[in-house]
Amino acid sequence: MTTSPFTLEALSEKLDQLATFTAPGPGVTRLVYDEHWCDAHLWLQAEARALGLAATCDAIGNLWLHDPGLMPGTRVIAVGSHLDSVRQGGRFDGAYGTIAALLLAAELRGSATPVAAFVTCEEEGSRFPMALTGVRGLLGQLVPSRCADQRDRDGVRWADALASARARGCAAEAPPDGAPVPKLFNAARQLELHIEQGPVLESMGAKLGVVDTIAGYRRVRARLTGEARHAGTTPMDRRRDALAAAAEIVLAAEALGLETGAPAVATAGGASAEPGLYNVVPGTATLLLEVRHTDDAALVRMEAALGERARAIAARRGVAIELEVQSGEAATPLSAALADQAEAMAAGMAIPYRRMASGAGHDTMAFAQDGVPALMLFTPSRLGISHHPDELTKVRDLWVAAAFARELLLAWAKDLA
Ligand code: HGY
Ligand code: MN
Ligand code: MN
């Protein structure tokens, strides 16, 4: 009698193993194409094969874990998440949805409509200044030759990092220059399991989040140029202090988020100033600003307001400012019909659930934007902590959503047969 691969113990063990593939330091740091990402990728390929699945790489290092008999181009139910992490992040963000998808694909082999697991190479944008490159490649929407010269903070080119991963067996051959990543499978429906990364489910004692909207975001880099001067001899009223202007813009961004009100958020995720010495008034400063909203019109208004406020502060202080949108995604509704179906099933199974929006961005946005009926299922996050080493969800809570996903995928397979 073959034992099912789909067990709470297997989920827990494989999550523990995946968490070991990280750079040294607190939490998990697994950046796309780095050595830890490659080690994790090769481990995942071996785990899939040990479960009787084929592990197929695409040209930028996305993985499909699927029934070996599936031919490219087949219509599948796609379930998965991302392999990369933020710097010093948690061990569940992306990893949970990846391992759950591996076990679900192994468990549901031979179902009425094939269930294939996907593992995107990159979602976070934590190494190169691009996010969701994995899923855009998976969907045939990314032209690698156009990303080639993007550089990480050490100056490494995206194309060179990808080539080093390919040399280790973590990516298929590159398509011709100008051609998109060849699409391997067609998603008839798509599901992503993910930790909530916020406090909502835990605070209301719910065990499952049925996600029907994903917040959009804009990431804007502000470069401020004032005048570097002697800190001891330059009178306060004769300064063009770039860092003081940046500090005022940080508080203006915070005020914008508070004034707009939930679910709006606004963040200055990073600030730096040069030359960064006690005795020099900063001549230049850089800010990493982000605004998010689940309503796209509101998001557009926030982006405009942020720019106006930042420019007004810079002008008043006689500091030049350059605002550059680094990346962004539209607020994205998921499939209301699939969310209704999931809600009805959760109610029927007496699982305490909540239908909700996601404040975090996810690979699922790209599927939904591509017209694929898509859904996310969330698990609670302890104290809502995420993108931090203390990210934690009890494995029995992870299991509730995974076991529910098994039933949901079986229902989808029947719907589509
Ligand atoms: O930033 C986000 O929302 C996601 O975790 N990448
Ligand atoms: Mn994340
Ligand atoms: Mn994630």
Structural features, described:
This protein has twelve helices and 15 strands. It has 417 residues and is of the alpha/beta class. The strands form three sheets. Strands 1, 2, 3, 4, 5, 6, 13, 14 and 15 form a nine-stranded mixed sheet that branches. A four-stranded antiparallel sheet has the order 9-11-7-12, covered by helices on one side. It starts with 7 loop residues before the first helix and ends with a helix. The chain binds (2S)-amino(hydroxy)ethanoic acid and manganese (II) ion (2 copies). One manganese (II) ion is lined by residues 82, 93-94, 123, 194, 362.
Structural topology:
Elements: H1 8-18, H2 35-50, E1 54-57, E2 63-66, E3 75-82, H3 95-107, E4 115-120, H4 133-138, H5 144-147, H6 158-167, E5 186-195, H7 200-204, E6 208-214, E7 216-225, E8 229-230, H8 242-260, E9 265-274, E10 280-281, E11 284-293, H9 296-316, E12 320-329, E13 332-333, H10 336-348, E14 353-358, H11 364-369, E15 374-379, H12 395-416
Parallel strand pairs: 3-4, 3-5, 5-15, 6-14
Antiparallel strand pairs: 1-2, 2-4, 6-13, 6-15, 7-11, 7-12, 8-10, 9-11
Helix pairs in contact: 1-3, 3-12, 8-9
The structure holds (2S)-amino(hydroxy)ethanoic acid and manganese (II) ion (2 copies).
Residues 86, 93, 124, 387 line the site of one manganese (II) ion.
